[in-house]
Amino acid sequence: MTTSPANGAGPASAGGTATTRPGAAGGTSASRAVERRTELAAFLRTRRERIRPEDVGLPPGSRRRTSGLRREEVAQLAAVGVTWYTWLEQGRPINVSSQVLDAIARTLRLDPVERTHLFRLADMPGSDTLAACPEGATLPAEVQDVLDALNAVPASVVNERFDLLAWNDMYALIYPRVTSAPVGERNTLLATLTGPECCNPVGSAEVVCDTMIGQLRAAYGRHVGDPAWTHFIRDLEAVSPAFAKAWAAHDVAQPKTWVKAFRHPGVGMVRVTTTSFSVSSVPGSRMVVYTPSDAESRIALDRLAAGEGTEAHFPCWPVHDPQRTMQAAATV
């Protein structure tokens, strides 16, 4: 199916799909399109039928002939036309947009795997990245369990924009500024770019930022035109001239194993090797584990794990304490 404006209404353009003789060029593609639309129709129907009316605030009714929601109810809840949704569920070759698919996914309460499947069946260009890690996606509890099991070393989960999604206690000890920030500001790239030099826990912040910005640029290639990404990039350009300069260079990079240094006021410099693992339950996210790269760093992390130095602060803490900063902002 092809992309259209956000309302998603209407059949495909006049003339439809050209008829192809069996065995002629394009015949295989046409048959696959029919199979995909048939699969999409069945998938939507089964997802609709599993939702009870009372689950979405509708009266159950006593004269329902089918289980789950009616088509017109899905259309109403998703704010799309009844006829358009009926045609979609019937497997007709109609236009569809990512915004409409997203509304349908929310209405049908699809989980991340189901949402990705919906986008693929709808044959959206870049479907894997359009469906990946939607706003508000939550990590399964098992992912936090893994992070907690690794508590001898710092570990976290980030998405492609470096939003911090989860972390363990050791990571919070190493990087309290980002873990204690409001939810909408828990972004490791933003914190590294804007943290005061006197208490920025990231050593060689400029080098680290250049690497992170290269990774962000590579990921952005999969999200060009996404309003959330565009807004995020514009915000970073506004708050950080260093980001704007590096972004304009168009350098790209991929996540890799590398040595990174953290500064801690209680135990000193901690050098770690970063290793990333994909978190398949939320597409686009990855777990980053920081293992000590030398004996001194291992000792430093062991001291933190034992509770040594955890109350220490940089000399500028009275001025740059994140909690004080948030309280001051709230009183303005």
Could you give the topology of this structure?
Layout: H1 27-49, H2 71-78, H3 82-89, H4 98-107, H5 112-121, H6 127-131, H7 141-149, E1 155-158, E2 164-167, H8 169-174, H9 176-179, H10 188-194, H11 205-220, H12 227-239, H13 241-248, E3 258-264, E4 268-278, E5 286-292, H14 295-305, H15 317-320, H16 322-331
Helix pairs in contact: 2-3, 2-4, 4-5, 11-13, 12-13
Concise description?
The chain contains 16 helices and 5 strands.
What does this protein structure show overall?
The protein is α+β, with helices and mostly antiparallel strands. The protein folds into two domains: 105 residues, Orthogonal Bundle (434 Repressor (Amino-terminal Domain)), CATH 1.10.260; 191 residues, Beta-Lactamase. The chain contains 16 helices and five strands. The chain has a five-stranded antiparallel beta sheet with strand order 2-1-5-4-3. A hairpin with a 3-residue loop joins strand 3 and strand 4. Helix 2 crosses helix 3 and helix 11 packs across helix 13. The longest helix is centred in the first third of the chain and has 23 residues. The N terminus and C terminus are likely disordered.
Rg from alpha-carbon coordinates: 25 Å
Under the CATH scheme, the architecture of the largest domain is 2-Layer Sandwich
Helix tally equals 16
Q: Label the structural class.
A: alpha+beta
Principal-axis shape: elongated
Q: According to CATH, what is the class of the largest domain?
A: Alpha Beta
CATH-assigned fold name of the largest domain? Beta-Lactamase
Proportion of beta-strand residues: 5-15%
Work out the count of structural domains. 2
